[in-house]
Each structure stands twice: as C-alpha cells, then as structure tokens.
Amino acid sequence: MSSPQRRVRPADSSVLLAVRGVPSWGAILIALVFGIVGLFAGHSGGTYTVGWTFGIVFVVGIVLAVLAVRRGSIFTAMVQAPIVLTVLEFGAFKLLASQGTVFTATKIVASFPVMAVATGAALLLGLVRIIAQPLGRTAAVVYSHE
Question: DSSP for 101-112?
Fold first, then answer.
C-alpha cells in the first residue's frame, strides 16, 4: 500500500516545486562548504591566493544555495555572499597563511570581483524565484453584480 504524496507548500519548496527546500541555515552551510572546498583547492604550499579555483567553486556554492533554499527563506541566500566570503577569507588568511589583519583586509578587497559575481548571480536567481514562485496562491475573485 503506497502512502499518499504530500504537496510541498510554496513557501517550503526549493527551485523544484515538488522538492522541499533547505532552511536558511542550510543555505549558509552550502555556501560555507563550497567556499571551504574552494579555499583548499586554491591553497598551494605555504602561500594562499584567491584565484579562479576559489572564485568558481564559491560562485557555484552560492548559486546552489539560492536554488536549494526554501522559497520563504530566499532572502538569506540572496545576501549571504559578501558575509560568507569575508568570513572564509579572513579565516583562511589567518589559519592558512598566518597573515596579519591589514594584509587580510587588502586581500579581501582584492577579491571584490568574486564577491560581485556571486552576489549578482544570487540576486538575479533570487529575484527570478520570487517572481516565478510566489509564496501564496493567487485566486481570482469573482464579484457578482446583482
């Protein structure tokens, strides 16, 4: 005997309407995991630089977070890129490169293109989801003039 399928509420769906999305903390976790993978992929020997490897992996993580998050929590996924990037890079330069704070700040500023692309992609995809996946159902109201 098969169990009846339950519909996912619009506020709880991911980009795929039949799939329940992750909560806002899940979107942050997705971005962090992809960012950490990108950091280690871009780390070679004793030097650490923010390169194409990190940038691509980080942007992919941000995009996946926007697509996987619940529709009701999409704002978090749309605005998280600058915060996650700053936290990741500050931690990476402190732990992997043992650099000072001023050096870290200049490297974070130098990674602006990665942050801008990730934020732009997240905002664009988020806005498309907001328009294409409204939270409530719009019902036509019929007025009778009697």
Answer: HHHHHHHHHHTH
